[in-house]
Amino acid sequence: MSMQDVPEYKRTGIITVNELKRLGLLPSEERLRKGPVAIAECPEQIPCNICVDACPFKAISMNTINDIPRIDWDKCIGCGVCVAKCPGLAIFVVDLSRKDKALVTVPHEFLPAPRRGDEVVLLGRDGGRLGRGRVVKVWEYNRTWIVTVEVPRELAMEVRAIWVEKK
Ligand code: SF4
Ligand code: SF4
Description:
Layout: H1 8-12, H2 17-22, H3 29-34, E1 37-40, H4 50-54, E2 60-61, E3 70-71, H5 81-85, E4 91-95, E5 101-108, E6 119-123, E7 129-141, E8 144-152, E9 161-163
Antiparallel strand pairs: 1-4, 2-3, 4-5, 5-8, 6-7, 6-9, 7-8
The structure holds iron/sulfur cluster (2 copies).
């Protein structure tokens, strides 16, 4: 296999929106506009299927434990349980149903804990700062915070983490 055949995310460690699309891991624009929906950014064939059992709606499937997770976006209601339970912090929920802002739900494992109403720094897949957004919902599972933030619509597919500044 030449270097050109190696997917970009294997070389950089960071998957891009185009690669997610190519792998069929992104829901359609139409589905995103209907309401919250999960996106598993997990393209590696690793022996993990925690998300399959975690989903209360049986929306995630795999043929074998080494497969990549596939989400049935018609069954998914965007509850975020899989975001909380994925040990790889690789699942997010995106909601484009509002006209003004998008909502993105991300896992967060750093202190200080975010609180509803906080303005936080929005980070991309590479950890780079993309702007600021407001926390609209936070819940905790096993020391992971599941945080929903309002973001500019054009950043819905880019924001994948937050940073809470110390006060
Ligand atoms: S967001 Fe909820 S319904 Fe959707 S795949 Fe995850 S656990 Fe299942
Ligand atoms: S739980 Fe996370 S790391 Fe494991 S298969 Fe699902 S998305 Fe991938």
